[in-house]
Amino acid sequence: MHLFPRHARRLLSAVCLLGSMTAAAACQSASPDAVAAPHTDVSVPAERPAPPIPDPVPLSLGLDAYRPTDAEIGQISKAINLLTDQCMQRYGYRYTAGPPLTAFGPASRTDLRYGIHDAKLAAERGYHPAGDAAVFKDEGEARRQASASMNETERLVLTGGYAGRPGASAGGSSSASVAGRELPKGGCLGEGTQRVTAGRPLVSDLVQDLNDAAYAKAEADPKTVAAIGAWSTCMAQKGFAYAKPMDAPNDPRFSGPSSTPVEISTALADIDCRTQTNLIGIWYAAETAYQNALVEKNATALAAAKQAKDAALKQAAAVMGGTPAP
């Protein structure tokens, strides 16, 4: 599960919506009263190394330690799936999670965080991300149809009921019973998730807020602003008028299902100008500085977020090992 700035989260939202129910649970936010207010008033050194970065995919950032990796999300999801199935069996049903969705979109948290960088991919797809969007969408639709094919009682057991449906009540709790057994809050999926995560989100709102703050501060940093200006000038010299790097991929002309020659030529010019201005290297250096400063400023609150993540991973390992904690 990648964590992107709010302006770049359309793809992540699609992943959450089209993924399995347990993956969607990992995309949930914390409740407002459970989130500490972030401290975002920080300053960073004006001078910092900014070497060129030809491939940002393997980069890391300071907040990475406080949120699970995709592999860790997979481990937690497997444990929740197992517990959900065990619960479903108590009511005479089975639960089998669908296979992982076809890879689509950014390869890491930093892959497209500062814009495109892969000239070979751009020459083939322009600004369209790697992977087959149609297959990804079809697989998500197949999952929705499989969920819709459940009978009313089976769905009630799995989820505890939906608003407006029998057995549903505020907060996802249910007073209904099936096969002589009262349903757990949130159904079997709620029970499985609660046992692994203790009801805490895997990515807290605090971590997301600090992520957004660091990105915004890095984008507004004088060195980044200067690099963006140089990039815009370079693009204009090539015949492409864009004030900011993210304006190009968001050009409405490039929103179709496949890339066009104009999109491809724009994307290739974009990458060439990024290289000439070292835009990615400068932007990443700025965000690294701001993330590290924000991590230090919010150390106590972030420790709780890391504890929640580590506890969920420990519980997931215990579940899969056959010895879950009570």
Key terms for this structure?
326 residues, mainly alpha, two-stranded antiparallel sheet, 12 helices, 2 strands, 52% helix, globular
Describe this structure in words.
- With 326 residues, the chain is mainly α.
- It has one domain (6-25, 59-320).
- Helix content is 52%, strand content 1%.
- The chain contains 12 helices and 2 strands.
- It has helices spanning 10-18, 21-26, 70-90, 119-125, 133-148, 152-159, 187-197, 205-220, 222-237, 261-277, 279-297, 299-320, and strands at residues 177-178, 181-182.
- The protein has a two-stranded antiparallel ribbon with strand order 1-2.
- The longest helix is centred in the last third of the chain and has 22 residues, at 299-320.
- It is globular.
- The chain starts with 9 loop residues before the first helix and ends in a 6-residue tail after the last helix.
Task: Reconstruct the topology from this structure.
Elements: H1 10-18, H2 21-26, H3 70-90, H4 119-125, H5 133-148, H6 152-159, E1 177-178, E2 181-182, H7 187-197, H8 205-220, H9 222-237, H10 261-277, H11 279-297, H12 299-320
Antiparallel strand pairs: 1-2
Helix pairs in contact: 3-7, 3-12, 4-10, 6-7, 8-11, 9-10, 9-11
Question: What's the rounded overall pLDDT mean?
Answer: 84
Strand content: under 5%
* Strand-pairing-aware structural class: mainly alpha
Query: What percent of residues adopt helix (DSSP H or I)?
Result: 40-55%
Q: Could you state the oligomeric state of the chains shown?
A: single chain
Unreliably modeled segments: 7-34, 162-174
Distance between the termini: 27 Å
The outline comes out as globular
**Element order: H for helix, E for strand:** HHHHHHEEHHHHHH
Largest sheet: 2 strands, antiparallel
Number of helix segments? 12
Describe the strand arrangement of the main beta sheet, using strand numbers.
1-2
